[in-house]
Amino acid sequence: MNIFKSMEEAVIYISEAIRRIFSPSDDMYPMIGVNPFEGDPYHGPTWVD
User: In the chain, what is the greatest distance between 2 CA atoms, to the nearest angstrom?
Assistant: First the structure.
């Protein structure tokens, strides 16, 4: 009987993972779009050792 319970738990675990992969995204990121770059690029040494 114990093997059936462990198999059931394995099937539930795998099916929940598949459901999470193929479900719509639940991310709560703000819809702000592309942000402009507001910094200075790094102009370090150009030589390489």
Answer: 70
CA 9 – CA 17 distance, rounded (Å): 12
Read off the amino acid at residue 9: E
Q: How far apart are CA 20 and CA 12, in angstroms?
A: 12
Determine phi and psi for 21, rounding to 5 degrees. Answer: -65, -45
List the structure tokens of 28: 């709560």
Render pLDDT for 22-46 as a digit per residue (tens, 0 to 9): 988 777 777 777 777 777 777 777 7
Round to whole Å and give the CA distance between 24 and 3.
34
